[in-house]
Amino acid sequence: MVDNYTSLNKTVLALIGEKKFKQLQDILTNMLPADIAVLFSELPEQSQPLVFRLLPKDLAADTFVEMDSDLQHLLIQGFSDTELQEVVSELYIDDAAALIEEMPANVVKRILRQADPETRRQINEILKYPEDSAGSIMTTEFVSLRAQMSITDAINRIRRKGFDSETINACYVTDDGRRLIGVVSIRTIILADENDRIEDVMNRYVVSVRTTEDQETVVNIFAKYDLTVLPVVDGEGRLVGIVTVDDALDVLQEETTEDFEKMAAITPTDRPYLKKSVLEIWRSRIPWLLLLMISATFTGMIISHFEDALKTYVLLTAYIPMLMDTGGNSGSQASVTIIRGLSLNELEFRDLFRVVWKEFQVAILAGVTLAVFNFIKLIVVDQVSLLLALVICLTLMLTVFVAKLAGCTLPMLAQKAGFDPAVMASPFITTIVDALSLLIYFRIATVLLGL
Amino acid sequence: MVDNYTSLNKTVLALIGEKKFKQLQDILTNMLPADIAVLFSELPEQSQPLVFRLLPKDLAADTFVEMDSDLQHLLIQGFSDTELQEVVSELYIDDAAALIEEMPANVVKRILRQADPETRRQINEILKYPEDSAGSIMTTEFVSLRAQMSITDAINRIRRKGFDSETINACYVTDDGRRLIGVVSIRTIILADENDRIEDVMNRYVVSVRTTEDQETVVNIFAKYDLTVLPVVDGEGRLVGIVTVDDALDVLQEETTEDFEKMAAITPTDRPYLKKSVLEIWRSRIPWLLLLMISATFTGMIISHFEDALKTYVLLTAYIPMLMDTGGNSGSQASVTIIRGLSLNELEFRDLFRVVWKEFQVAILAGVTLAVFNFIKLIVVDQVSLLLALVICLTLMLTVFVAKLAGCTLPMLAQKAGFDPAVMASPFITTIVDALSLLIYFRIATVLLGL
Questions:
Q1: What was the ipTM of the complex prediction?
Q2: What residues of A are in contact with residue B30 (Cβ under 8 Å)?
Q3: Chain B residues within 8 A of A430 when measuring between CB atoms
Q4: Under CATH, to which class is A275-449 assigned?
Q5: How many CB atoms lie within 10 A of CB B83?
């Protein structure tokens, strides 16, 4: 790991300036692909193709995969056809497919022209699966074995096929119809007796997913079963690919970012922040701001409706923000907890009543605590009338109660209705709770203060 | 994978009732540990020890690891010393250490008494590292090789040592002082020529972490370098353990949950929602609600200060919620984006000015868009005076502007100051923006409406 990119960067720039390419090459070949990619992203554009050519073939391909798509695009534009072919032939099929999804049409054509027919067929195979499905993130390069093979045969086959395969940690066993019937880890093969047959040592209980399965489910399966590889089968149970854990980890990070964005009322996009244009950021945020602004109109209407009450008792206004905020925060706490539980599969719709009952009790405890603190503050610090303090504290309790219940039920109902529960986070809950808290406030004030 | 737990559960209960234990055993041995653990969690308590005893030894240990700590505790209480010893001896060291951290003192004593001295030493080794450090999540069972070994020697050593090791996907090469000098994958060993030496095929550029490194950094390293195993070294560079990717995935899920909780103003706890008691949930939420409630007092004070203005122009009140909510949402969008960028290492403090400049532009675009829409609505639907519409729309623009800037700078400043940026999410941003938006509102109203 390189700790200090800045000083490294300076060294590299100096070597480029002095045309000391041999020395530069020595430094680069001693680095890891992910670190070289970071270094590249900070080099001036005109030096990038030059420095890329200094990398040995396999390191070049590994580094290329780690780069962001803008940089990949730039490099490809400078490649000769031979250079492009060299890089593409070193890529794993899933990485090649991912690259093609990011590139503009003319670059895609060039890449596919440089790939050999078999690679092209495999890339197209992956590209035909829907976005975010298991099929779209799998690779078609894996080692498959037969049940009748001896350990020695299996090792020979692995040696022959293994060079092209992304991982040999798990080898899958298929029958005559290419159907998945077992799995055997390379560890088991190494540790087994040479005369054993694969069927003696293989595990017949293989966790697998269908090509059409959502990638979020794929990640949950990795986490649940502690896997490093997951086989992907088609509708007939035939093995068509594997997903490796590094890709699952990437998917998890991506899906988590999406959840965070949805929960903050942002339309998810898959580019890193600094790469996004101002217009892109604006587009992903403005529809939700508009929608929520319009929803807040109802809250305004409620206040207008009670205009006369407010005129005679203007002090009521001073506590509106506190009531709305506390309600919003109480609701968000519940909704975020439930949304996270749903996404980790810790909660399901059938738990609805247990959840509601739990939140019901928490709401009473929290409501009473907040009301007591607030009552003391109202009487001692603000020195308002006992009646007004009562109105505010009753509203507070009821608001917390309503907010917790809305916060826990809405995400579960959203999921049941087929929506992503993440949209039922703070912004929406807050808007709903705002209106409800005001209705409660004015209702109680009207009765108790006789407005 | 078992799709239908409910029907399986019924079958299992029926078999228990009819005492058909042989049949039950056949079903269980055909299941995966994670699935058996789910099944267990739904069995009646008195059947759990009985069913556990039906599992073959290694499956029992694998299943035990997948259970939650309440169930583990219950089973251990029913174990004889021999049974406990059997389970403990089958556990990997990191799993044994994790178990011990969860159990009450008397159970810990029993477990350690049943472990053999070497296991006990290794468990204590792991337990001495600070919580959430690389040392605390590593396992001390791994295969290490020497540079001078031939491939054949290495394979023999792996066969001898491999049974106890959690993974042999990566074998680490150490020198005479046990210092980490290289890594070689089992794949490379299998594919290498038998006469090669380890030093010919090993990779000298090994990514490793110090025992004291934070577990969040560990996960980021796994993701960055696409690893399945990460070696852990002590202060002198000696190899002391390895972290496997399945544990990294668990840490990632755990850390993500913590981030979600912090961002919703909840003190993180590590138990799943349904396992938490009402009091536990209340304790994790109430301090923040109180703190935020008290902070909202300032907002109330601002309103009280402008009481006279509100009395003469009571319509102003109707737009307070819309202004506060839109400000809060604008600020949350920016803060959540930045918090996520920081946690993915896509952003650093040195990007502060680029971030502020981007948000500055987004704020102007978003502010103008919202103001225009709102202006039309105010004039056409609400039919307020031109001057009031102007006051509201100017406030809206300035609020969005202030909110976006507070939202993007506060998380970065928090991180720079050594705090977790996640606390600078919606709840705090909203509270700050509320007060600022009201100040802007009344200031503009005072000037334009001559209050």
A1: 0.81
A2: 204-205
A3: 325, 328, 430
A4: mainly alpha
A5: 18
